[in-house]
## 1
Amino acid sequence: MGSGFEHDCAEDCHPLTAEPEVQRCIHRLYTPGGFPTDLPNLGDPDQRTEAAREWDMVDPGSLRFHEHGTTSFILAGHTSLRHGRRTSFALKCIVYPYLRIPTIARATVRYQRTFGAETGELRHLVRVWASSDSWILMDLIDGVPLDVHVERRLEEDGGTGLRLDVLEELGEQLFAALTELEGRGLHHGDLSTSNVLVQHHGEKAVFRLIDLGSNYLHTQAIPGRAGPGARYVAPELRAGRADAHRADLYSLGQLLVTFAGVPNSSDGTTPDDFYSEAPLLARFIEDLIDHDPARRLLVFEPKAGRPLYAQLRSFFVGELTAVRTIRKESLVSSHAPWYVHVRELFRPLSGAPAEQRRLWQHRREGRHLRWLRWWATISGYAFFVAASLIVMWWMRDLGWNWATKAIEAVQKTAGSNKDSIPFLDDIRAADYKIPDAWGSLPARLVCLSFIFAGSKYYQNLFAGLTPLITGIVDRQLRRQALAAEWALRSMTLVPAVLTLAPTLIQRTWWPICTALGITATFICNLLVSRFAASALRRAISAGLTTVPRDPSDLARPGVAGVTALRGWAGTAAFYGVSCWTIGLLIYTGKLQDELVYAIAVSAINLVLFYVFRCGVNASYMRAGLVRACLAAERLAKLERWPAPAPRQRSATPAATPVPS
């Protein structure tokens, strides 16, 4: 009946355990002291007597197969009739040869003493009746395994992408269970989806924790396959170092990832979906799942002397509330991916200024949040001013009605005619004629496409992050962070300046401004990717396991977004050389195909940059940059405290200056 055999339980296990002779045989073999082993009697005499008394109450004819464990099988049954009542139970029977292993036998016989005291008063634990060296007798829970419940919930409501609604619902239950467990001075040690049952009380689901204590297959103390739950087990337990207190933190983080409905990464790091869609939660989960137990809770440091999981629940709820605020109260997206991409075509600012404003209004602490909010707002205003003027000048070229009441009032105040705009027309070059629809067409096409692509570039990639996330201690990395910060913030105004100059002053400047814009993009890509790559490399060198590694070279980071951004820098360099060459030829009059070149540049701006690079592909690019910023934050913690101790130092995490 071991879990390593391939068989059909409905055809084999259930009919087999329903046979009366098999039931009597199981009852006889598992009688305390009745199994033919060469182990000495374990447990004290009183405990053996109590186990024998509980065993005598088992009705052998009621035994039926319930489910498999990793080193056991579980039967359901009921007690003999006493005082007109029968009580249902679950019987966990250790299978041969595991029951001959002293480590397992000792853990089994001590189970009731370790985890059974006062468990009848707990809502999230299963009451243990008794335990012997080969079995554990406990309440029968009418529930489903957590993995089945998670799968059902993820299929409900038609939600897509990162299911933060399910994460909130199930995360609250998990924190409640761990808080109650901690209140009794207990730790789980083997927290996984297979060791949590979900019991329904009306419409509300309650988590019930089972199989507390180390799983010796996971710790490799005994040979055998560890099973699918091994990915939730902390690395130190798998290496045989028992530290259930901090091991439960790792399992908690991995379970939260599962609740969100995204595939677990093969290396145990936080999946990219969190970094691109909910980096506030990525930061929280990342702080739970470092392979080094001493490096967990570096950022979210709870107060010493207070219940740990109650504080972690407060952090978790706070981050979810911030995400809800950014998303306008909704934690679930019912839109298909294609709809999201199409919607983004009509959002040149990607909603970033509004998101940064809502996040700042929600938290109102931390200079970084204020800093990000103002730059997102500046970029937004620069876009609207530049785009409005370009469209207005184009309407003037076409002879359409372009004047607004405000402009008419300015014209009357300045005493100018109705075909001119005071001050703005005064700075226009003498040979720059308006209206001139055909002559101005190349400049209008390129400028309008560039302001859209440039604004999308900043708002969708950089608006919500800063390399200066914690005040980095490492001088070289800090210099790189300052350079990256300068480069990416400059992109709030560069598109507006380079499009307004040919629009307002001299339209023949557009080929030079195009080349300058590509050069600025190249510098930004280069400096930001350089900082990101350095931060990730240093984090790996420092031993932080929250950074994915390149499978071909574990000393290098394996973050696709950062690698792609470095590729963008190379592409921008090649494109920049082409733009400078062709642009100078057009500007000096040596090349006459001005409109053809303008159409090509506009198509590249709108299709390659606006739609694909800064739209469809922005999420994984943003995820890579967020990973780098969070790696720099954790690295700064290690630099300040080279040997993080288990004790806690502060009450609340710093304000979160990462993408929304």
## 2
Amino acid sequence: MTRATTTRGLKGWGGMALALALGGAVAVAACAHGDAGGRAPVTPAEDGERIVYPKTRKGEQVDDYHGVKVADPYRWLEDTYAPETRAWIEAQNALTHDFLSRVPERAAIRSRLEQVWNYERTSPPAVRGQRYFFTRNDGLQNQPVYYVQDGLGGAPRVLIDPNTLSDDGTVAVSGYWASRDGARVAYAVSSAGSDWREIKVRDVASGQDAADHLRWVKFSGISWLPDGSGFYYSRYDEPPEGEALEQLNYHQKLYFHRLGTPQAEDQLVYERPDQKEWGFGGYATEDGRFLVIHVWRGTSPKNGVFYVDLEDPKRRVVELLADFDASYSFVGNDSRRGVFWFKTDRDAPRGKIVAIDLKRPQPSAWKTLVPEAPETLEAASVVGERFALRYLEHAHNVVRLHRLDGRLDKVVPLPGLGTLGGFGGFRDQKEAFYTFTSITFPPTVYRYDFATGQSTVFRKPAVDLDPERFVVEQVFVTSRDGTRVPMFVAHRKGLVRDGSNPTYLYGYGGFEVSLTPTYSASIRVWMEMGGVFAMPNLRGGGEYGQQWHLAGTKERKQNVFDDFVAAAEHLVAEGYTSPSKLAIGGGSNGGLLVGACMTQRPELFGAAMPQVGVMDMLRFHKFTIGWAWVSDYGSADDAEAFRYLYAYSPLHNLKPGTRYPATLVTTGDHDDRVVPGHSFKFAAALQAAQGGPAPTLIRVDTRAGHGAGKPTAKLLDEQTDRWAFLVKTLNMKLPAGF
């Protein structure tokens, strides 16, 4: 909801993991078997077949962590593009494909997924001048198409079609920003799921690209000057010849690009050579008076805020909030009074809105406009001369509009318990757009009229869905230490709780990311297959504010795993399912969750599906942007942090001879966020340690990254394989006529 280009550079990673895990949502030990280079273990599959795993060489690597010797026999798998690793990937993929291709129900699953996935998805429009900008996917397009229309009733026309940029759909537009007058659009292009972006500029009237072309951009948005003459963005230095891109994750710099000039002439606005981990998000205020600089450090929610008075000839950078003592998100400003408005959790763990007078910026002079509420303040913007505030109440959204003096104006009625996105715009707008969705409510775009206070449907997908066929409820489970943890549970109406129902339990629990109920084509199909879907809101997330997040970080990370186990035990105790029918899944930090829980409680689960997971907790900070996660995890370089990281690191807690659940590890060979070596090493070690009959497989997607920009065709392929894997390993019987 905030218009700032980056309020915290790396937040929101879990949202991607959620989208890729759910599919179609709106939205990672010494081995007892064999010797080095010898024959890998041979284990029977559940139906009596024998799986011969590819041979995986064991190296002699041993590291010393604060006096503790730790073997790392599969270190060589960290080199994704080495010939030996590529051969290993090819062999593992061949085994996985062979296993899944022999699941009789696979074709029916793919067919139904494609049917249900094929519906129109539209984003809330951004209003710029007299033009409305939005994205739309007609159903099965690999990438959403970018549209513009003149006026509210104008005919939409294609502005950017990413599907024309590559034959396989792996080149995506990963962001776009229209100028204030709607005359131009800056857009970011990424390839194969990479976090790296190239920025181009398109003239809206002609549909032609200008010569502007910016490179080495990562973790950055765009903020136009109000007159459209140029924009602010953040980038890294071009790497020296021969240096790998993976090393370019420090010393981000803030630049201004003037339209029509080469990138080499861009103005360096701000850098901090003494702070290599600092990143910057520049935002030009709506009135053009100030440049607000959000300063972020990795994924820590605590940030700084600096600013530049653009009317000051010296353009001095003023360090307004430099203590990094809380989270601060710039919401808007009143230039006449020299006041900035912020959303912050300083002295308000669930968030509040404050006004800071630039002439008296000390905290004692701050004015609280909207005090902390019982609910968690998730996002804020200034639009239509109001604060639009999005709250989380037990993991579902509530929207309240406040006058700029803080007085409550209206509560926006929503169709039910679900998730809202949008309500962005400018202070003088007369309207705002938002999307609402829930588990049985496909994403629908609404237009809110500030004059009447009414919402009307702007775009509604034509989805053949009867919500009465399903039951969606929110329950609360009790974790190991007595903490109450909310969980959404959904299934077909008429389900009998006799412990026989296949159940998919999905979680995340980290980086202050909140999981809220959204419509998902793949989860709908799972429920049609007779499955139960459950999604708990674990500690480490942002559902209950700052304290809920901190309760799942660093030495308290075990709380997250305990919450997830409590959710699983609740599902069993209440008769939804039984351990042999219970599957767990999660992506990225959620992949770590799955890996930790399946190694701590292998008997509790029938199947596990970690996606792009962080599996090596001793070395994660050594790759790409992994250093940024230390704020949540801690680092093995620290002796105390090593102790607790080593205690739960999935890779290091596999015990040879243990009967682990059936496991399908998934990753992408171009993942430059959670590097695929995490999944490679974990899969190799798990295959060697497996002491039971359940299959242990890895699926490596090529020309794919962490999840962003993954084409629909690849999403459908992966989701088909995931559900086919569960049909096989949970011994599911699909309903008649499926």
